[in-house]
Amino acid sequence: MQLVLRGPTGHGMPGAGCTTCHGPANPPGSYGARVPPGVSNGWHMPPPDMPMVFVGVAPGALCEQIKDPARNGGKDMAALRVHLDDPLVLWGWTPGFGRAPISTPRAEFITAWETWASTGAPCPEG
Length: 126
Ligand code: HEC
Hints:
Helices cover 29% and strands 3% of the residues. It is mainly alpha-helical. The protein has one domain (12-118).
């Protein structure tokens, strides 16, 4: 079994970088399911010193984490909004054959984001 690791920058390990298998776009549906998806600006993870682990984090803590430049890659609210247009983020709504897109439609998500940001990006308790 091939072990995929984050590596020193989040782009994989030498000789097993993410882009060894993940190309600049999703392969055509004719390739079937279980193929490595792709994205134009380079498939990668966050770097190890900024791992951005969201799983199991309570809503209030997740909200604070997302807004904290020390833990979100140095982004203020304006930069976070730009990040939502990053091809790797957009991929979540167009993940390719055999994968379910993010369940909230993108337009609905962006509208909710804009409302949240314009009201001071409040976080829930807990
Ligand atoms: C040796 C080839 C290879 C390398 C290197 C590789 N991947 Fe993959 N990746 C795959 C394959 C094959 C799939 C499709 C697996 C499937 O659908 O069962 C995949 C799927 C994925 C998925 C989608 C999972 C899902 O639930 O749909 C993500 C996310 C991912 N890889 C991230 C990465 C990251 C980040 C790196 C670099 C740190 C990386 N991969 C390096 C082969 C690779």
